């Protein structure tokens, strides 16, 4: 089953109340709340407030988007604080960054650090009844599907999952293969469409051919997956409404 939603950091300047109104008016299902501004790491009181506001609007918390960098515990907020916040928020999964080096720059020792810390935080999240999902992103060990699969297999923990988003440098056929490669670990997908040359966000409707193929792959998977809008043209709430209608129409 595919559900629709929004990654809250798309609109960092808006309050949680304003974001909830946008998502509810768009008729979407849920929100991934960001840990950098909307639900700060360690602020369990705010997390409980946002959880209630989200539920009162008939929406679900799809994930907690933390900015914990796996393998860099000394530079990140304590993961125990992240878990405590996610518990009060009612998040089923915590998004984290798979280190801070791309797969081409990481040696075996560095990968080992990320694997070890992944297993540690997976256990902590598991005790709270949650999973951990890697951000699928450049500059980390999930910058390619090949590296992501290798990492997931090395960690080999039932509570470690991954998000996915289409790598901007790949053609659609290769993106489809990338998505299929991580399917068994997939939690949520971040949806956007951008100009390959400039990186500028474009209306989601312009990516119809690509996204209909991605959604078909996701629809064939078992379980529940959120496809959540992240980035909209010019960061305008009005454009979000258009993109939301486009995504819901495809679903």
The level of helicity is: 40-55%
Q: Give me the number of helical elements.
A: 8
Q: Total strand count, please? A: 8
- Architecture per CATH nomenclature, i.e. the level-2 architecture: Alpha-Beta Barrel
Approximate shape = globular
Q: Under CATH, the topology is which? A: TIM Barrel
The number of distinct structural domains comes to 1
| Largest beta-sheet details | 8 strands, parallel, barrel
Assign the structural class, choosing from mainly alpha, mainly beta, alpha/beta, alpha+beta, or little secondary structure: alpha/beta
User: Poorly predicted ranges (pLDDT <50, ≥5 residues)?
Assistant: none
In CATH, the homologous superfamily goes by the name Divalent-metal-dependent TIM barrel enzymes
At the first level of CATH, what is the class? Alpha Beta
Q: Output the strand order for the largest sheet.
A: 1-2-3-4-5-6-7-8
Order of H and E elements: EHEHEHEHEHEHEHEH
Question: In angstroms, what is the radius of gyration?
Answer: 17 Å
Percent strand equals 15-25%
What is the arithmetic mean of pLDDT?
Answer: 96
The end-to-end span amounts to 10 Å
Explain what you see.
This protein has helices at 16-25, 44-56, 79-89, 108-127, 145-155, 172-181, 208-219, 237-250; strands spanning 2-7, 30-34, 60-69, 93-97, 131-134, 160-164, 186-191, 225-229. It has 251 residues and is of the alpha/beta class. The protein has a single domain (2-250), classed as Divalent-metal-dependent TIM barrel enzymes (TIM Barrel). An eight-stranded parallel β-barrel has the order 1-2-3-4-5-6-7-8, surrounded by six helices. Strand 4, helix 4 and strand 5 form a beta-alpha-beta unit. The longest helix is centred in the middle third of the chain and has 20 residues, at 108-127. The protein is globular, with a radius of gyration of 17 Å. The mean pLDDT is 96.
């Amino acid at each position: 089953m595919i559900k629709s939603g929004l990654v809250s950091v798309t609109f960092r300047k808006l309050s949680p109340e304003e974001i909830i109104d946008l998502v509810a008016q768009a008729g979407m299902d849920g929100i991934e709340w960001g840990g950098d501004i909307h639900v700060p790491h360690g602020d369990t009181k705010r997390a409980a407030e946002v959880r209630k506001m989200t539920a009162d609007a008939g929406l679900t918390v799809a994930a907690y988007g933390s900015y914990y960098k796996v393998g860099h515990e000394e530079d990140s907020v304590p993961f125990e604080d992240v878990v405590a916040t996610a518990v009060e928020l009612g998040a089923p999964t915590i998004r984290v960054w798979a280190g801070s080096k791309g797969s081409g720059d990481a040696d075996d020792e560095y990968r080992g650090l990320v694997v070890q810390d992944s297993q540690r935080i997976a256990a902590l999240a598991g005790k709270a009844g949650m999973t951990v999902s890697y951000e699928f992103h450049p500059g980390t060990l999930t910058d390619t599907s090949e590296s992501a699969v290798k990492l997931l297999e090395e960690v080999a923990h039932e509570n470690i999952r991954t998000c996915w988003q289409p790598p901007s440098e790949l053609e659609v056929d290769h993106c489809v293969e990338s998505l299929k490669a991580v399917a068994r670990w997939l939690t949520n997908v971040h949806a956007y469409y951008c100009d390959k040359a400039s990186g500028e966000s474009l209306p989601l409707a312009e990516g119809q051919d690509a996204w209909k193929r991605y959604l078909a792959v996701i629809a064939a998977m078992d379980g529940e997956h959120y496809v959540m809008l992240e980035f909209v043209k010019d960061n305008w709430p009005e454009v979000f409404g258009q993109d939301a209608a486009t995504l819901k129409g495809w679903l």
